[in-house]
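> example.struct
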């Protein structure tokens, strides 16, 4: 992993290019943007909201796209990849030909609560009223990709960036479509997809440039959770090449093989749900690690199985590297969307913009500031910088302690002087009232001294830790310390085949059962068995959900706590004296029992 000054950016990108291992069911692999653009038309948004075609299929190349971007810089533009979605008959024929392959043993609903399944159903209904990629578009896009694009190379678009002592290698991958919703029951579909992997390199003591951290793009995520230290046990390496696992259809990256459960709060009630979870966890603490806490989020699964094509060193297919930067014309000049703009109010069904720009036209964070994007601003690229930082901080602490001692001495002297003055003024009737003000000033000085002494104690403790670090070195920090996971998480115990089957069946029928209970709540009031049906339906849903997940005891305690709480509230509203007396009697008996135990043990 060496780096010499004469090595070009392209050489450096090749030396550390990642390996991508895709799912066997993946329809779209990294594609050549030039071939994609040739298959697209270009449109601009008119003032009245209509779209006007600027270029037809076959009229565009990357240079022409950049020129259009310059000429229409003030207008909203988008490419269009799929022009004629397959009809229902064509779509069925396409599926019969075997082009759409499903993920085996996949059932996202078996991993979340029944409330999440209901919210998911409402989310699906909302697609009818939003701008979305039409039915058959993915199939049509796959046909174009397979016949006109897939036979070409698999390029990555690499950028080398130097900032704050880091050498940053960004590998951009372009996909003709994101088909997460249509093909794999995800959250969205859209034409075009840009994803990336970033390596952060710095020289060691020997001056050799080497990777220190790797960050993987994951949907719209930002921050520490995106990155892994190079010695993280989750990471796989093929020589100097890190391995990433793109999600089926979503192309979101994972550093390891897994079926990742992604929970998305509905946009309209996201804030309410966060508060609800906190209250629920405080009332029912035994449910904090269960799906009850997350039960109102919409569940989606990202499949990172890596059982398909592998692209990169020692893989099934090689990379074709293409270096890009701020001066690459098609990167710099085209700010429009790289696919159909469906005008989805939530944005998920509309195509993204290119690697440099956000949808509002400003630079992407991961392009302009890749350090902030992965929480790297606080990480020093120099391994020896920590020792220097310890010495610098020790000197600052010593200086501050001396300042505090001087401030305390002054405050103490002034407090004593003002206390004597206040005492003297108390003996004179003319100044007795003023003495109270002096005593108040003395109390304020005492509080100031107390605050300074508390700060000094904290600094002394910090100085002790810094002194140990200076002599013995910093304590070892695990590769997952930035994630709050010093100890590797143990894998979950696999559920039995019987329970998996029960979960899958119950997941399929639970939402219709819940809807039936809701219908009974709305219309069943005319029946003499109204409350019997309500309570029976709720008990059926809670009981089967808990039984299928092996949480019957937790559900029992939660239900009992809920009904006891409701009973107490009703009792206080109707017969508050009797209810309060019963609660006080229970409290007296508990207190008596504890006191007797204390007497016996003493």
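> example.seq
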């Amino acid at each position: 992993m060496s780096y010499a000054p004469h090595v070009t950016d392209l050489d450096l990108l090749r030396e550390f290019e990642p390996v991508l291992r895709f799912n066997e069911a993946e329809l779209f692999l990294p594609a050549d943007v030039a071939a994609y653009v040739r298959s697209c038309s270009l449109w601009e948004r008119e003032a009245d909201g209509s779209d006007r075609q600027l270029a037809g299929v076959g009229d565009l190349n990357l240079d022409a796209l950049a020129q259009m971007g310059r000429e229409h810089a003030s207008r909203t533009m988008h490419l269009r990849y799929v022009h004629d979605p397959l009809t229902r008959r064509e779509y069925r024929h396409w599926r019969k030909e075997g082009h759409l392959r499903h993920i085996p043993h996949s059932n996202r609903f078996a991993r979340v609560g029944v409330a999440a399944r209901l919210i998911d159903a409402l989310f699906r209904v909302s697609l009818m009223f939003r701008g979305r990629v039409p039915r058959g578009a993915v199939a049509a896009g796959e046909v174009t990709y397979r016949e006109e694009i897939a036979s070409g190379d698999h390029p990555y678009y690499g950028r080398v960036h130097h900032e704050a002592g880091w050498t940053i290698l960004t590998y951009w991958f372009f996909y003709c479509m994101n088909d997460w919703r249509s093909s794999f029951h995800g959250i969205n579909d859209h034409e075009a997809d840009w994803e990336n992997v970033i390596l952060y390199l710095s020289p060691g003591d020997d001056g050799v440039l080497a990777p220190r951290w790797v960050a993987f793009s994951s949907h719209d995520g930002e921050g520490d959770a995106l990155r892994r230290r190079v010695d993280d046990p989750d990471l796989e390496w093929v020589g100097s090449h890190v391995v990433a696992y793109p999600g089926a259809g979503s192309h979101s990256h994972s550093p390891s093989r897994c079926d990742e459960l992604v929970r998305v709060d509905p946009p309209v009630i996201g804030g309410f749900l966060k508060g609800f979870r906190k209250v629920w966890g405080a009332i029912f603490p035994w449910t904090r690690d269960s799906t009850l806490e997350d039960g109102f989020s919409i569940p989606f699964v990202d499949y990172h199985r890596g059982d398909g094509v592998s692209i990169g060193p020692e893989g099934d297919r090689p990379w074709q590297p293409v270096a890009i930067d701020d001066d690459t014309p098609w990167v710099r000049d085209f700010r429009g969307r790289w696919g159909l703009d469906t005008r989805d109010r939530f944005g998920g069904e509309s195509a993204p913009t290119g690697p440099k720009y956000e949808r509002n036209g400003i630079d992407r964070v991961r392009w302009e500031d890749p350090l902030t994007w992965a929480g790297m601003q606080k990480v020093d690229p120099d391994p020896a910088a920590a020792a220097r930082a310890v010495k610098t901080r020790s000197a600052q602490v010593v200086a501050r302690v001396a300042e505090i001692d001087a401030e305390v001495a002054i405050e103490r002297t002034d407090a004593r002087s003002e206390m004597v003055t206040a005492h003297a003024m108390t003996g004179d009737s003319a100044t007795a009232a003023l003495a109270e003000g002096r005593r108040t000033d003395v109390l304020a000085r005492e509080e100031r001294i107390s605050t300074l002494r508390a700060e000094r104690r904290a600094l002394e403790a910090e100085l002790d830790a810094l002194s140990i670090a200076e002599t013995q070195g910093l304590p070892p920090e695990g590769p997952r310390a930035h994630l709050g996971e010093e100890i590797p998480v143990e894998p979950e115990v696999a559920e039995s085949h019987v329970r998996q089957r029960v979960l899958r069946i119950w997941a399929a029928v639970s939402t219709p059962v819940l809807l039936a209970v809701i219908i009974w709540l709305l219309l069943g009031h005319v029946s003499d068995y109204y409350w019997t049906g309500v309570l029976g339906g709720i008990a059926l849903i809670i009981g089967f959900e808990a039984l299928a997940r092996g949480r019957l005891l937790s559900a029992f305690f939660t239900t009992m706590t809920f009904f006891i709480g409701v009973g107490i509230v009703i009792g206080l509203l109707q017969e508050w004296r009797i209810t309060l007396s019963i609660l006080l009697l229970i409290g007296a008996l508990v207190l008596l029992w504890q006191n007797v135990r204390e007497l016996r043990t003493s």
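> remarks
The CA atoms of residues 174 and 194 lie 5 Å apart.
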